Amino acid sequence: MSADSENTPPAPPMPRRWSIGVNVFIQIMLTLVLFFGVNRLSYRYHTRWDLSPQKNFTLSQITLNNLEKLSKDVFIANVIPRDAPLFGETQTLLEEYRINGQGRVKVRSIDPLRDVERAEELKAETGLPLDQSGVIVRCSKRTRFIPEEELVIREKGGTEVQRAIKEYRGEDAITSALINVVEGDAKKLYFVVGKGSRTEAALLESMLAIGELGRQQNFQLFPLNLAEISTVPADADGVILCGLRYDLSEREMEIIKAYWARQRTGLLVMLDPSGETPRLGAFLGLHGVVPRGDRVLYAESTGKGARKEFSVQAIFDVESPITRPLATTSTNLPGQTESLEVRFEDEYLKNQNITVHPLMGASTRYWGEKNYLEDLPIADDEDVKEDVFLAASVERGSISDERVRLESCRMVIVGNAAMLDKQSALAVNRDFVSASLNWILNREKNIGITPKPKSNYRIQLTQRQSDIIFWSTTLVMPSIVLSLGLMVWASRRAS
Fold it and tell me: Which of 83, 87, 297, 494 is 20 to 30 Å apart from 246, CA to CA?
């Protein structure tokens, strides 16, 4: 044996097989602990982003407030077929309700065409026929079914199936149903009849439109003929005077005044400019809102002759809780509209603890014209050129002390009675009336949920751009993956 071999240190012993196994086992366990730990943390602590252009899946503060205050468990079932256009959007929205429901909202998706057994169980539980798709909201023994068509607003014209979806109002409908089943007893509103209208159809359309709002906002609508009663029913939460063509008699006016004198009342007055209602106008004037008896219009001389425009473009006030959610939008009031004098700086009203606030004004090109029957009216001194108010609110009672505010009397006056007409009704007008009704009922928490507009986006690509996308996806990207695989294989072969 040579000296060099004697001085060479011995090779380190190879690790035993069991120690290698223990090492691998520990690595696997640490990997699993890290994997499940990260998943657990990401499940409990995560952030969600709504990247849709219209924020379709971001719940309004109104809905969040209602979900935070839930004191009962709520069950919501999505009974829309999975291949229906509204299924995905509705299911994603319902997940937001579940996530923000403080553990009290349970969501379930049941396809009535495929999950027949579960659909039959739901029928037995709720007693609903489920002959159409929609959303079921249930709390305790109270159930509300929202048909699929109540979740959307469609374009006008054509059949219901052919009309394109213009706006998605799922949050509005679902939150209203949630309030309905949680609150239980519905509010009662009385609609004054027997005083004429522009047409019988106009009166019926207004009642149907407000009745539809009632089904969504949890109040019931009843007709009220003042000539047949001596007092407004004690259970009335609000009274609606819409498009009266004939004035109230002295006796009927006393009934309204006696109702308004109660501790907690609500009035919605939608004026027909062509109506002869001096007593009603005097009553409104005593509370700071005076109907001027004019017509809000725009007139100009064109090459084809004089042109008068009575359909008014209106702008909403940004400070009132009624119109604040609508302040970023504008609307058009169909038919004819009269302007209102709003005396919000009147010292007498302040001494009477009455607060008056404008809600809606005409855009700058319109004015209140007294001589509206002329072929080409011109704004002069007797006309209203600035601060052309179209709607206003009146509140009798403290607005600083919330305990007193609950007992306040509230009234909304609008100088137009045609904004709910079926042929010309706009979604924003419906939202305004809905917000006004909730306000006079002292339910501000229900104000502020507006429909989400639906938009279609198209990407225009040139032929060259299309070719680049085609070759990138069919040749370049697969080649990169193949090359990386060959590099890994070659490196392993070399080692």
Answer: 297
Q: Number of folded domains in the chain?
A: 2
Q: 284 and 154: one domain?
A: no
The reply to whether 214 and 255 lie within a common domain is: yes
From the centroid of its chain, how far is CA 56? 11
Residues spanned by the domain of 96: 51-184
Reported for 364-369, long-range contacts at CB under 8 A and 24+ positions apart, including other chains, are 365/298, 366/296, 366/297, 366/298, 366/312, 366/313, 367/296, 367/297, 367/298, 368/292, 368/294, 368/295, 368/296, 368/338, 368/339, 369/294, 369/295, 369/296, 369/297, 369/299
Question: Using CB atoms within 10 A of its CB, is residue 324 exposed (0-12), middle (13-18) or buried (19+)?
Answer: middle
Mean pLDDT, residues 336-357: 91
pTM above 0.85, yes or no: no
What's at 410, amino acid-wise? R
Q: What are the tens digits of pLDDT across the range 12-30?
A: 565 566 777 788 888 889 9
Please state, in angstroms and rounded to a whole number, the distance separating the CA atoms of residues 362 and 25. 77
Please give the single-letter amino acid code of residue 179.
Answer: I
pLDDT in tens, 439-456: 998 887 667 665 565 555
Q: What is the pLDDT of residues 47-62, one digit of tens each?
A: 777 776 666 678 877 7
